[in-house]
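Before relying on records like the one below, remember that each one covers exactly one chain. Contacts with other chains, cofactors or solvent are not represented anywhere in the record.
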Amino acid sequence: MDAAYHNGKYYLYFSRGPREIGVVVGPAPKGPWSDPLGKPLISDGLVPTEDRDPGILMDNDGNNYLVFGTWDFYIARLNDDMISLAETPRLIQIDRKEGPYGPGKTDDKPYLHRRGNIYYLSWGCFYAMSENVYGPYLCRGSFLTEESVEPVFRKGLLMDRHGSFFDFRDRSYFICNDQSYPGSHEYFRNSVIGEVRYAPDGTILPVELKERRT
């Protein structure tokens, strides 16, 4: 699930199981929400992967993109109305891909963000970089390491880190799922957040996940 604000309206994109992606529109983040299409934005069978886990990139040039999929990720530019596709979804090529299940595999829940001239495609705590939003992307591994994550968050360190990047007050952050913290599990996940810093070449430095102490 992801959301966007454009032309004075809020758009919420969501998956119906692994088969379809829909969009609803509202005047405020709390709604009320309405279905402008009366049908899926991404219908079952449009691409040869699961139609799930949409992410939105609102690019610097005014173009907006939808990314989605499991194992194989697809991208499509949206029309300015934000509820229709401007093009047929394209397969994103990822070189040297890896993920929590090992080399050659990604995961689900793709997410796109941009910093400068570099686009970052992430799936959990793994990511790839490109200078073109359509790719090809080069996988750079995980930005979470045992050294950067406190022990309380290390159980299943690389698994199910579905999350998003965002900027706030000139600083960048990554927020994601966590099943490690006491009281959480597969069906009750907490959220954990860490500040994101970048190396001069654009790669993401290890993100620190720390337990808040008061």
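The chain is about 0% helix and 40% strand.
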